[in-house]
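Re: zinc ion structure - here you go.
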Amino acid sequence: MKRWTLTFSIFLSVMLAAFAVAGDSSHLLREIEAEVPAFMSTWERIVNIDSGTGDAGGLAKVEAVIVQRLNELGAKVEIVPAKPAVGNCIVGTFKGTGKTRIMMMIHYDTVFQKGAAAKRPFRVEGKRAFGPGVADAKSGVALILHAVKLLHALNFTEYGSLTVLFNPDEEESSLGSRNLIQEVAAEQDYVLSYEPAEGDIVTVATNGIARVHLTVKGLASHAGSAPEKGRNAAIELAHQLLQLNELGDPDKRTTVNWTVLRAGQKVNVIPDEARAIADMRLSQSSELQRVQRQAEKIVQKHLVPGTDVTVKVENRRPPLPRNRASDEMAETAKRICREIGYQIEPAEMRFGTDAGFAYNPAGDKPAVLESMGILGNGYHTRDESAEIYKYAEIDSIVPRLYLTVRMIQELSGVRP
Ligand SMILES: [Zn+2]
């Protein structure tokens, strides 16, 4: 368990040597290094509590840990049920002496079933930590809690308000927390989101997620005695899928992939209904309407006469489009990281996250920045056999805590 301590010492010595002139950054780095054992202990504790989306008992246990920490730090804590999802949103607020309103947010549900933590508890191997949800997004929960603790220890209160928001349903499209995220984000100047970073990046654009539903109604008939009397919905669905296979637009980073198909109940009956669902990703909200219009036009052309075809685009999560405010925040993050010799770059992400709900397409506030969390890999997969690919990079704890603490100082208008 001591290997990572050694790793930190080496990491820190290198950074301190390189930036011996930057007195303040080295002082802050020492404070952060001293915080790492407590960070590891919080991280281990919450990874070892299963909190899959919908797991009321597990979510309540993680909620209790978060609420207790926030109370200890003197936050005003609000618990908001995330109906229709299971569990609660936790909103903690710290009042400061300045003007800037800043929010940090992350989800505390995971994609893992009950029992995953008992089978594969938190463990450290070399420079990596493993366990269910270790990166996505328990690392973000620990990072927010300990960044707040560090700011508290530094007596830093120059923000106007510092809000932390934890939601329990992100892995199922944030159905019960999206309104609250939008509401609270609308009151902020800046929103930092703590999904893990896949590399030395911060994210300035995320994809939106939608679904395209295709439904064909036909007419049932016995496949042996009177197939000619039926109207085969499955055949029409197959025809439509071939026609609808090019709805994406690479130039706009829109993808549409048909992934779920359903037709027929019995082998001797011509199916009277067939359905398909496509996964759609988009970086511009206008693509929702474009795909809907284009698909409606295409489905007019039938193969099986007398079948009825409908197509409907369902918006599940809006994108964080590339925008100037996010780019500016990324530049600030980049400059802060340079103080400790850590190079990061702004990146665009193909996944969808809650950053899309925080972003306000109608105005330039709040500025939203994603992937403020620690480095992790392979986090967006439910495949348990791929667990080996899900890890978090321990060496990124110190620089990422540094980034957050300094970011909140800078956004509050304070340069130490
Ligand atoms: Zn996540």
